[in-house]
Amino acid sequence: MKFLVQIHRAITDPSYYNDIVALRFRSAFWFFIRILCVFALLAAVVHTSLLTRKGSELSKTLAEIFTGITIQKNTMQLPAVLPYIPPARTIATIIDVINNTNSNGAVVPESLLVFDTTHIPSQSSRFIQFGATAISIHFRGKSNGIEFPYKQVLDSTGNGDFSQTSIEHFFGRLWPSLFVGALIQNVIVLFSAAIAALFFLFGIAIFSGAYFKIGFKAFMKISCFALTPSLIGCMLMLVSGTRATLPFSGNAVPWLFYIFVGISAFSMLRGLRYVVTSAHHGTH
Fold this sequence. Notes:
This protein is an alpha+beta fold. It has helices at 2-12, 16-22, 25-52, 57-65, 88-99, 164-173, 175-208, 211-214, 216-226, 228-239, 255-282, and strands at 70-72, 75-77, 113-115, 128-130, 134-137, 146-149, 160-161. The strands form 2 sheets. The protein has a 4-stranded mixed β-sheet, with no helix packed on it. The chain has a 3-stranded antiparallel β-sheet with strand order 2-1-7, with no helix packed on it. Helix 4 packs across helix 6 (164-173), helix 7 (175-208) crosses helix 11 (255-282) and helix 9 crosses helix 11. The longest helix has 34 residues, at 175-208.
């Protein structure tokens, strides 16, 4: 409950920043770490649930790619002319859905995913191959790739298909792994967003002149709390399924992130003004 009160006051109560300046830096930084981890956790739960739910975009797209493909007695049966290479843009869509990102039309290599039960890739290739009895991940310049035999994921009959229902069941079994991956990714994304917002707040603090009156240590303690709206905005983008392009992702930052960084700046300036005014009155 105290944690929620801290979040509320960091956004709405400028007088609270007087108390923040009096905190030890370790306590302020611990608040930042907690809010980052909580938001990353919430976003990971939502994103993983969207990936594994029935009728998800991921399962539909994969079912289209694997149309007519089955595995009989641990051997893949392909109806298409070999090698079968799904459209690169479709693969880019799958990557975007899994990573909750937006490639902005960037196209992955044509040979990233290949279905071929008759040929062994050359050392100049680098892709994922669905072969006769196993999935192989090949790296350029390496003679041997990493193989995952179908028999390791199929039941004792060695038979399987790639219908949407089967794919949804498979991803349901992968929920814990997908959740851990999403959690790690969200921590990185939120931390990157916080660093980007921190540079903006630093510039605002210097421009306002307040930074020179409170010093670097007090500014960092205030920022640990003032970054709360920025992290909230970043989390909302992650859980909304908008595949937000975020700082350091190589793409443009969405307008929603700018709005929440602006709220962070407003909260910080109100807090700085209160801290500076209180310090001035305390000297008289």
